[in-house]
Records
---
Amino acid sequence: MLNQTELRSLAKAYVALSCAHQLEFILAMLDPAASYRSANVGNFEGRSAIAGMMADFFQRFPDVYWQVAQYRGVDSNTIEFEFEMTASEASSGVRIVRQGLERLEFTQAGYIKCIIVS
């Protein structure tokens, strides 16, 4: 099992890869049976479903970026962080700024098994 420092490092890497739209590397961080739950984009089960959602999201918001100030340990396998997301919708150019809370649950081996965004 990874410690909290290692889990925070993995969470920071996940956010950095997301900001860089590095889908291939994000997917490598996910457990094959990972789940994704978001009030804004819906619920997805498994790496393949999450990949499709993220690819569509990055296409819809080609400049999306997440700013995170602090990563907190919730329990022995969970990190959460508040974020501010900024993006422009590709089709309309409408600028979006949204705050939220994201929680990443990890397997003992350090793969992300659950992502919850609120």
---
Amino acid sequence: MLIRYKKTFEKIAMGLLSFMPNEKDVKKLQQTMKQYESDDDWHLYLWKEGDDIIGLVGICQNGDSAFEILHLTVNPSYRNQGVGKAILKALKEHYPDSTFTPSKEVEPFFSKIEEEIFQDG
């Protein structure tokens, strides 16, 4: 289930974001979190299964209905189980009339599942 980020989830969100290649440095990670918390165009969502938060997706609004997917990460224990795909599918359902483009970091995964999720309608 996709849930909107709240400050109470900061530690888990930072932990998940730290799996992204460009977010290894603590100062960079803190800057990214601050951006999500303060910029109205940046939106952070967490993925919850049962009682556990196991994934995260961060997007930036680049127009009325255009978004860039900046971050997409899943706890390594849950990878290769369709979680990333489920997160993007839920994101598309949350913003049904929007277009999504991936950041450079997200593009390799996005290109694998793009047709299935984002071009079916």
---
Amino acid sequence: MLLLEERLISLGEEVKKGNMTWKEVAQVLNQEFGENLSRDAVRKRFYIRDRHASEGENGMNTEISGAGEYETRYDNGMVEAQKVVEYSKEIFGDKRKMLEYLGYNPDEWEFVFLTTSMWNQHTKEQTTKQLYAVKFKIKPIMKTLSLEHALESAKEVFAREIKPYKFKKEKKKDLDEDMLIEIPAIELHLGKYAESLEVGEDYGTEIAKERFHTVLDSALSLQEIVGADRAVVMIGNDFFNSDTVGNTTTKGTQQYNDIRWKSLFITGLELYKEFFVTLREKFNHIDVRLCQGNHDMMSSFYLYMALSAFFAKDDIVKFEENYREYQCYRFGDNAIFFGHGDANLKRIVASIPAEFYREWGESKYRELHLGHLHSEVAVDEKSGMITRRIGSPTAPDAWHYSERFVGAVPKHQMFVWHATQGLKAIEYVTFERNKEKVLTLKK
């Protein structure tokens, strides 16, 4: 008889071919196995199993050594297993020793639950060997580092692993020192997976990469018109869709990605390396600033540090050693404040003149640029500062769709500033939605 997981994968392939729906799959599984699974439950379970299978880790119970022993590794990092061990007074009651005895590092794992039951084995000598079946679930220990420790660790690793590239400095002539192009952090949600059958449009890593390159091409075209001497580029703002090995946000909200966490980071790093290597040929100065999001607070920080190590010896691309969540960039009479904007908007707006009182007092034109909402919003708070929400190139996923966060046009904005005349223009980069797939059931 087929295991439920094997039957699920078989039926899921039929859904991918357009021969069934997830509701029909749930009905078949419930009838054959006596379960009470919902449409969403079988869909989510399939994609977790399917993703593991494509990587050689199908997530099913794997026999290790003898009857009754198995180990299952899940996408969120947890391990569920059963092992047969000999009785020992020393290990029972001591969870650290038990973890070592079971073959796991107690500094890296902790028990979620642990049960034991007697397992008697008869030997050839007709004696009984007293064994125990240990059934348990463990999870990786999440170690919390202070920003200072994280910064020092990142600097140490990147200094050892990433060798700065030596760029040639060639001064570009005929560029206007009074002009600045601002490229806010691109809220790409790299790695996010969405299906048109569920939300009306497809989204994945390859689509995200195409849209990132569209932003780069648009920036180059804009520079051909403006001829600015300087650009400021922000990095972060939910550039990555998830922040952990288990594909969750920084605070632990589960996300559904089409790429594993190591490949996700490497892909993002390569995209931005190409971005700056290409862009530096058109400007004399590129200032880079950090703008962490709520999805990728750690990953965006590590991306920023890796890039700063790569461009450490470049005279054009310069990374500021400022890692606060809200920052200010000064250009002539302009003060550009920025952050992700997932906190209360009124408190954010009220806090800017208090935190940046010097920059506020010395500037004439002030704007606050935020992300987070995936849609463009411009608010004049009548406080001497205009607040704008930057759009996002991403598509809605299943959660956003079910919560009705739909309708926003996928876009990204870039801003053209004059040193003494303030904001001169806003350049919009828009993206075509992938056409919705129509499911035709075969007769």
---
Amino acid sequence: MEVKGKIKLINSTKEYGANGFKKRELVIETNEDYPQNLLIEFVQDKCSVLDNYKNNDNVIISINLRGREWENAEGEIKYFNSLQGWKISKDNGIQVDETPVLTPPSHPVLENDNGGDLPF
């Protein structure tokens, strides 16, 4: 999946726990009639892909949708979703029309066409 929009916020990389889990969050505002502010997280070695970006950059982000189940102390099951980014690139605003161009077939030229009667 891809998301297009303008970067509103890039947080610094945070490290969690003794195992060295790293996460960096980004907020993007989508380019839609009703813009959405989406929190996208980059984890582990993907944190560094945000180093060359700043607020107000127009970008295209490749994401995966992640979901988790969690049970609280009372036994109630909760579900959580997150958007996990794995690739980001600047959006230069150029749209490529991927509609194939159809050309009419050419008519064969008959060698002995004298413009006369048909042979049947």
